[in-house]
Design a protein that fits this description.
The protein is α+β, with helices and mostly antiparallel strands. It folds into two domains: 79 residues, no CATH class; 135 residues, Enolase-like, domain 1, CATH 3.30.390.80. The protein has six helices and eleven strands. Helix 4 crosses helix 5. 22% of the residues are buried.
């Protein structure tokens, strides 16, 4: 597979090999990770990359002009007539089995890039529940958030509980998530909460320990969302 595409120029400063091409006032580009291309879009006047799985027809035509026998199937993105730029929402970040080649490929990606990838959540992991005011809320399980954090930070992160509060109806957990990004220690403070479950007609909690654990998990999820993990879920986009 050839890396370059006509009209795309290599970026001089980039942790990951990247190629960009101005088009209609915007910038389109792709990164090369593990020999595969990952396309992104940068809006005019912005610097934030949005990773896309649906690409414009003019890029698809460039891909089609390549030797198709050398293009792996997983590199081909679907194209729609409306040329809409859709962020990546496909599976691939949560493998069933972590193989050494996959681990080596992930290690080659910097932490900021990993966090950008994990901002969009595979719909497989998004669930819904009834909340206050009988509203329906989207959420992901704590195990998913922890797995994302392990992938983003390479297990080098920590959760610290600073204070507990308990009322007649809820348990509140206050603390922070801490991780090293580059040479900087980054700390995100958060508050987690869990309603106390009582048997009907009783004022003795069913299992207060479970309520404390759930409140801590809620704090962890909130803190990790401040790093951008599952940002779409906890900003109401999903």
């Amino acid at each position: 597979m050839t890396i370059d595409l006509p009209g795309f120029s290599p970026m001089k400063i980039s942790k990951i090999p990247s190629y960009v091409c101005p088009h209609d006032g915007h910038i389109f580009g792709f990164e090369v990770v593990g020999g595969a291309r990952r396309f992104f879009f940068v809006a005019k006047g912005d610097t934030q990359r949005t990773y896309i799985s649906t690409i414009p027809t003019w890029i698809q035509e460039l891909l089609d002009s390549e030797n198709k026998g050398n293009v792996p199937k997983e590199e081909k993105a679907l194209t729609h007539a409306h040329d809409h730029y859709v962020p990546v929402t496909t599976t691939g970040y949560m493998p069933d089995e972590l193989t050494k080649p996959l681990y080596d490929k992930w290690q080659a990606i910097g932490i900021p890039e990993r966090l950008i990838m994990l901002q969009r959540t595979d719909s497989t992991y998004v669930e819904e529940r009834k909340g206050r005011g009988n509203k329906t809320y989207s959420y992901v399980k704590g195990s998913y958030m922890v797995q994302c954090a392990n992938m983003a930070f390479g297990f080098a992160w920590t959760c610290q509980v600073q204070q507990w509060e308990r009322t007649a109806t809820e348990v509140i957990c206050m603390g922070y998530i801490e991780a090293t990004i580059g040479t900087q220690l980054v700390r995100k403070y958060a508050v987690g909460q869990q309603d106390i479950a009582y048997p009907q007609g009783s004022n003795i909690p069913i299992c207060l320990g479970d309520n404390y654990k759930a409140a801590q998990t809620d704090m962890i999820k909130k803190g990790l969302s401040y790093f951008g993990i599952a940002k779409d879920v906890y900003s109401g986009e999903v």
